[in-house]
Amino acid sequence: MILTEKHKELIERIGVFHEHKGMQPLVGRIIGLLLVHEEGEVSFDEIVENLGVSKSAVSNALTFLQAKGRCVYSTRPGDRKRYFAMKVSDWREDFEKELENIAEIQKFIDEVLEVRTNKNPEFNCRMRDFSDFLGFFKKEIPALFDRFKKQQV
Amino acid sequence: MILTEKHKELIERIGVFHEHKGMQPLVGRIIGLLLVHEEGEVSFDEIVENLGVSKSAVSNALTFLQAKGRCVYSTRPGDRKRYFAMKVSDWREDFEKELENIAEIQKFIDEVLEVRTNKNPEFNCRMRDFSDFLGFFKKEIPALFDRFKKQQV
DNA sequence: TTATTGGTTCTGTATTTGCAGAACTAACTG
DNA sequence: CAGTTAGTTCTGCAAATACAGAACCAATAA
């Protein structure tokens, strides 16, 4: 597949987006390429060529993405190449994990509340309030998915 | 205020947590200190002493936190020092922003779908599904806050 | 006025990051 | 067997990061 300027520009923006999320630049670009690529399956050297980077960099980035469970590869009979693809399949699971990860701050807030004295009750009260909300939020996540299913038809 | 080992250890863990979120180490430690500190208001040089870092580093980190709207300072009559505190007050707003930020990936997914051909309809279908969910999710956020308020009594 | 306090800005640097390039391995091919 | 292909691992380096230290500034105090 040959990439148009529009493709390249979109890949670039998806890359930057993921960089801001803490990933290294190339990892973000690869995510972009795998998403934009027609077949959704891209060979190792197609990545190397399209992104203009070294094999070692691609190898490391793909190892990382696989370790994080965000990408997989498949092989084809009589072809030693590996074809890499995003695991969009379980976006539900991924998204759930990301939400729970956000709510992880609750753990710290609760620990902070245990350690704090009563010298600033207003501060404590607000933190308790926030912690309560995070607990509520976590509980509500499954229901959210259910409601989505229902209204989807 | 004198910090116990428990305080220091908690500050450290809160620091690492924020580092993983992409912030620079000292910024994370300062967040920890401001949360753990009894009064919730900490002077510039208390930060310098307790964290054992230079004035310049603290100055830059505080400028950053203020720019991000995560911390503020207040002064006291007849006292030139600045007392810094976290803005736990509007956690609601912050949290809402963070959720919307997550959902921002929808924008990219939609752009990707526009660019993609129909060579891999299953892939496209899943992405469309994910995009739909993200749209649903964004719409549901305000209702989530409302329900929290109600069940809170 | 000079001295002190509270904080900022500038300059330099040790550490870390992100990648290139080469050497390497493992599997297939002729 | 030697040669090729597909990818990995190792070594090194340019650039970015995160901070220290010193110079600096602005406001108050003496």
Automatic annotation (TrEMBL), chains A, B:
Keyword Transmembrane in annotation: no
Record carries keyword Transmembrane: no
One of the GO BP terms on file: regulation of DNA-templated transcription
Entry keyword set: DNA-binding, Transcription, Transcription regulation
GO MF term (any one): DNA binding
SUPFAM superfamilies the UniProt entry points to: Winged helix' DNA-binding domain
Record protein name field: DNA-binding transcriptional regulator GbsR, MarR family
